[in-house]
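Sanity check

After download, print the first record. It should look like this:
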Amino acid sequence: MRNLGPNKRQHKQAVILASTLTTILPAPALAHATGQSIVALLPTGPYMAVGVMIVALSILLLWFLPHQSADRLLPRLLIGRMATPHRLRSISSLGFFLLFCWLLHTGFTGTRDPLENALILGFWVVFWMAALMIQGLVFNLWGWISPFYWLVRTVTRMRKRGFMTLPRAIGVWPAVGLLLGFSAFTLADPAPDDPKRLASIGVTYVCITVTGMWLCGPRRWLSQVELFSIIMALFGRLAPYGRRGQTLWLGWHGWQIGQGLSVRPGLSIFILVLLGTGSFDGFNETFVWLDLIGVNPLAFPGRSAVIIPVICGLAAGNLILVATFTLLILLGDRITGGQATARQLLPRFAPTILPIALAYHTAHYLPSLLVDGQYVLMVLNDPFNTGANLLGRDGFYVTTGFFNHRETMRMIWLSQALVIVAGHVLAVVLGHAQALHLYRNLQRAFVAGLPLAIFMILYTWLGLWLLAAPKGG
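Expected structure tokens:
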């Protein structure tokens, strides 16, 4: 998180750190426990140009692929049949539910310092930063750590007939509202890193979720309303390991989407909002945004002074993204003489931007994770404040020195840029694969995908610019 009372200092060769850890005070934050308000002085322009060119070239190369390679763009390999260990997963889920309850308890009773409180570090760093990355980059981690999975079979056995049923017609629109609300909380709330505040919201959310599962059915609630289960399920579609029934497969990232995945219309809007909120999260920190809302980045008045502009910007950014994406896929369809509606096209093409959403999440939080992960290790070293030294980290001091050296900052920035470019290239490949599944013709698929391809190129530049843009506030 940021704005924890840091001192500002300048490094002439690499970066200007506008937030340091010399003074740690609980104050307004941005969904993670340390700041990343910096001005990058690296020569990022050439790297940005190369990144955009790579995405553009990947689009041109798709023209030379044979038609029959649509399902082979992202190959997969059958690992074998493997039964789902429901009982083991239930035990694991129950364990994480109890762990989450303990974290909520530490939010109420533990230290108010967000860099030492287990709830703040556990939720924002371990879950929101790291777990989402693992879910999309490696395997379905949520299937083992979801604190609600164990309740599914329990509630299903105990739930009596006659309770209300959540209509399928409402889709995931409640989750879309929750996603916007959660994003507003992380970006506009005066103190999302306050342990008691977060614990109160966590208890309320758990009570609503358990009640909803009991009244409306657990599977319906988790698939239509529960925000984090839906996000994890979507990012899980990008993981190389995937399950189809009782068979386990290993393939390129995104192969599960490349097989012709089509989602519900409401879920396609959820995906676009997921990308929109992630993009605005990065833009919200830039000098450009602060200047736009009339705020001096070197004399930031505090988050409570910009609540309304941030909420309005978040809403406007998502509306613009949804409208732009919809118009572009409709334009591509019309160019090829198609008559498909937005309701038919969005469910097919919206999932193709999930790699961009994951790439933005990974790149945006990488610097914070490098620092906040050290605080997590310190808490794990002595989780109950008993003087234990479980990990042998006694006397360890958190370091941010890698932000002060040109070479390490170059490695960090290039790693972020590589993730952004790879995410867009994968999105381009998925978009082409979906177009081939829809139009069954290489020429029509390529032409129909051109407007969306231009969008991918421009969004690549935007993502790289967000990494390099001066940040403050």
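If your output differs, re-run the checksum step. Summary of this record's structure: Residues 1-38 have pLDDT under 50 and may be disordered.
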